[in-house]
Design brief:
- One of its GO terms (cellular component) is cytosol.
- Belongs to the class II fructose-bisphosphate aldolase family.
- By secondary structure, this protein is α/β, with parallel strands linked by helices.
- It has one domain (6-334): Alpha-Beta Barrel (TIM Barrel).
- The protein has 13 helices and ten strands.
- The chain has helices spanning 6-19, 31-44, 54-60, 68-83, 106-118, 137-154, 184-194, 225-238, 258-266, 276-292, 294-297, 307-310, 312-334, and strands at 23-27, 48-52, 90-97, 127-130, 157-162, 167-169, 172-174, 202-206, 247-250, 269-274.
- It has an eight-stranded parallel β-barrel with strand order 1-2-3-4-5-8-9-10, surrounded by nine helices.
Length: 341
């Protein structure tokens, strides 16, 4: 299928919230990880979200370019072509853009999509994330309000972050303290600034103890009830028809307890970012290939090695298969497997 249209993407997210499941949002940084992610969604019978961060977009552009917008547009173009060959809907998203990169990442991409949509086409991406976790909430929401208006013009969904995700991702560092737990007041301020859908479609990454990075099970202390309190506060204050007015996003899920994940999804999480686990799932089979075939990969003691062993297609396939399998696991864990219609 072609990349999801704005209407198809909105339907995907609404259906996930209504039916109590979430889509894995898989970070990629090159054509191999992109291919692996799409195949994983198709193998699971799940629609899905594939995303690129600022660092991933820069890497996608190549070491001779190192330019985020170029890499993001190249990622979008490649995905649009490859996705046509699969029978699931794929949405494209840009991940974690802090304030100092808005002018060199999200804003230029939005401008490009607005130009394309004005000419009768579709946006390059289906959603963009503004990460305002490092600035005061008032400033965060002021910028979000401006971006939401532009996203509405571009037929794009905005994702915002309210609160702080601990750990580090692409240079964005969050302290592990009480700011990792969003409050009902934070949620109400968000709804007052951005509305409850009438000003444009947006997703909200409220934080409930999330931590980016690699952690053993049990080391991440989540409080999913924070999400329910936020939804309840907005529903009561604004008398929304849906008792879960926000489409929520779950960041920093590595090492999370399965029960906590399911509880969070039950409160309206429709998108869960998956990056660390799929990076390992891609790299681990490649490491095994290199170790198991070292005498073919390397030209040892004057020998010539084995071209079939060091051909990037050989070890690349192993990495892609490993990552695709991990995407299937994520779809099964979040309940999106088999939900494509």
């Amino acid at each position: 299928m072609p990349i999801a249209t704005p209407d198809v993407y909105a339907e995907m997210l609404d259906r996930a919230k209504k039916n109590g499941f979430a889509y894995p949002a898989i970070n990629v940084s090159n054509s191999q990880t992109l291919n692996a992610a799409i195949k994983g969604f198709a193998d699971a019978g799940s629609d899905g979200i594939i995303q690129v961060s600022t660092g991933g977009a820069e890497y996608f552009s190549g070491q001779g370019v190192k330019e985020m917008v170029t890499g993001a547009l190249a990622f979008s173009a490649f995905a649009h072509e490859v996705a046509k060959k699969y029978d699931v809907n794929i949405a494209l998203h840009t991940d974690h853009c802090p304030k100092d990169k808005l002018d060199t990442f999200v804003r230029p991409l939005l401008a490009a999509s607005i130009e394309r949509v004005t000419g009768g086409g579709l946006p390059y991406f289906q959603s963009h994330m503004w990460d305002g976790s490092a600035v005061p909430l008032e400033e965060n929401l002021q910028i979000a309000e401006e971006l939401l208006a532009q996203c509405k013009q571009a037929h794009v969904v905005l994702e915002i972050e309210v609160g702080v995700v601990g750990g580090e991702e692409d240079g964005v560092v969050g302290a592990q303290d009480e700011k990792m737990y969003s409050t009902p007041e934070d949620a109400l301020a968000t709804a007052r600034a951005l509305g409850t859908g009438e000003n444009g479609y947006y997703m909200t990454a409220l934080t409930f103890g999330n931590v980016h990075g690699v952690y053993k099970p049990g080391n991440v202390k989540l409080r999913p009830a924070v999400l329910k309190a936020a939804q309840d506060a907005v529903h009561t204050e604004f008398n929304t028809p849906d008792d879960k007015p926000f489409h929520l996003v779950f960041h920093g899920g590595s090492g999370s307890d399965e029960a906590d994940i399911k509880e969070a999804v039950s409160y309206g999480v429709v998108k869960m970012n998956v990056d660390t686990d799929t990076q390992y799932a891609f790299t681990r089979p490649i490491a095994s290939w290199m170790i198991g075939n070292y005498d073919g990969v390397l030209k040892i003691d004057g020998e010539v090695g084995d071209k079939k062993k060091y051909d990037p297609r050989a070890w690349g396939k192993a990495g892609e298969n490993g990552m695709s399998a991990r995407v299937v696991e994520a779809c099964e864990a979040l309940g999106s497997a088999g939900t494509h219609v």
